[in-house]
């Protein structure tokens, strides 16, 4: 998944970047380097907390696209400056995108994937992150700092360009009561043209959505 590969790129960026930043005219200290690494994780915590605010409001698809924006903003700040406070801000902002993407991509894949491959797709998320980390680390060994950053920013941009054409999940449409859109989404995902071929699955999904709503309501009453 391009989104997670992009997150892995941010994780791997510090490996080639910190040696460069500690050996320039405006060299950073070891303590500042540690903060550059840590602020990405702190931003990720905030991103995870923000996910529930948008996932059922604007949908899984547009939430993922929204959280890709902080990743791009982070790279833009890194490209634009070597000022330490701006690097701090860049890493924190990018981390927000990381936290949101990891939460949302799990939901998205879980709602569009067939049960037979759902587990495999979940495992592939970690592989994708490692691919991104390996890619940026390898590129950083051969390219100068500014070119490394330009290559890295292409990952979230490419994700947004490609993912724009992906459908929203049927479950989100059913939560919003848009059954016809849910059928169209499922037909697109399965490359089918006849609505009747997905009606049985849509019915099961609708029952699961209603059961989820009842569970939430009962939990709220108990609390």
TrEMBL record:
<keyword id="KW-0812">Transmembrane</keyword>
<feature type="transmembrane region" description="Helical">
    <location>
        <begin position="62"/>
        <end position="80"/>
    </location>
</feature>
<feature type="transmembrane region" description="Helical">
    <location>
        <begin position="148"/>
        <end position="166"/>
    </location>
</feature>
<dbReference type="InterPro" id="IPR005829">
    <property type="entry name" value="Sugar_transporter_CS"/>
</dbReference>
<protein>
    <recommendedName>
        <fullName>Major facilitator superfamily (MFS) profile domain-containing protein</fullName>
    </recommendedName>
</protein>
<feature type="domain" description="Major facilitator superfamily (MFS) profile">
    <location>
        <begin position="1"/>
        <end position="223"/>
    </location>
</feature>
<dbReference type="InterPro" id="IPR020846">
    <property type="entry name" value="MFS_dom"/>
</dbReference>
<dbReference type="GO" id="GO:0016020">
    <property type="term" value="C:membrane"/>
</dbReference>
<feature type="transmembrane region" description="Helical">
    <location>
        <begin position="86"/>
        <end position="109"/>
    </location>
</feature>
<dbReference type="InterPro" id="IPR036259">
    <property type="entry name" value="MFS_trans_sf"/>
</dbReference>
<keyword id="KW-1133">Transmembrane helix</keyword>
<feature type="transmembrane region" description="Helical">
    <location>
        <begin position="34"/>
        <end position="55"/>
    </location>
</feature>
<keyword id="KW-0472">Membrane</keyword>
<dbReference type="Pfam" id="PF00083">
    <property type="entry name" value="Sugar_tr"/>
</dbReference>
<feature type="transmembrane region" description="Helical">
    <location>
        <begin position="121"/>
        <end position="142"/>
    </location>
</feature>
<dbReference type="InterPro" id="IPR005828">
    <property type="entry name" value="MFS_sugar_transport-like"/>
</dbReference>
<dbReference type="GO" id="GO:0022857">
    <property type="term" value="F:transmembrane transporter activity"/>
</dbReference>
<dbReference type="InterPro" id="IPR050549">
    <property type="entry name" value="MFS_Trehalose_Transporter"/>
</dbReference>
């Amino acid at each position: 998944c391009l989104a997670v590969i992009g997150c892995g790129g941010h994780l791997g960026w510090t490996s080639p970047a910190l040696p460069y930043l500690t050996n320039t005219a405006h060299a950073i200290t070891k303590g500042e380097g540690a903060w550059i690494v840590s602020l990405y994780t702190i931003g990720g915590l905030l991103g995870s907390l923000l996910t529930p605010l948008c996932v059922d409001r604007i949908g899984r698809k547009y939430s993922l696209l929204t959280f890709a924006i902080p990743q791009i903003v982070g790279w833009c700040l890194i490209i634009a400056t070597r000022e330490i406070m701006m690097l701090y801000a860049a890493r924190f902002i990018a981390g927000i995108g990381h936290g949101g993407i990891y939460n949302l991509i799990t939901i998205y894949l879980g709602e569009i994937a067939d049960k037979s491959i759902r587990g495999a797709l979940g495992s592939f998320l970690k592989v994708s992150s490692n691919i991104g980390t390996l890619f940026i680390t390898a590129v950083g060994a051969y390219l100068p700092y500014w070119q490394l950053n330009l290559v890295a920013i292409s990952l979230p941009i490419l994700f947004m360009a490609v993912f724009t054409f992906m459908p929203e999940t049927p479950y989100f449409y059913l939560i919003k009561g848009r059954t016809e859109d849910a059928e169209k989404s499922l037909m697109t995902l399965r490359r089918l043209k006849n609505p009747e071929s997905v009606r049985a699955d849509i019915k099961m999904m609708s029952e699961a959505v209603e059961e989820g709503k009842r569970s939430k309501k009962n939990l709220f009453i108990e609390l």
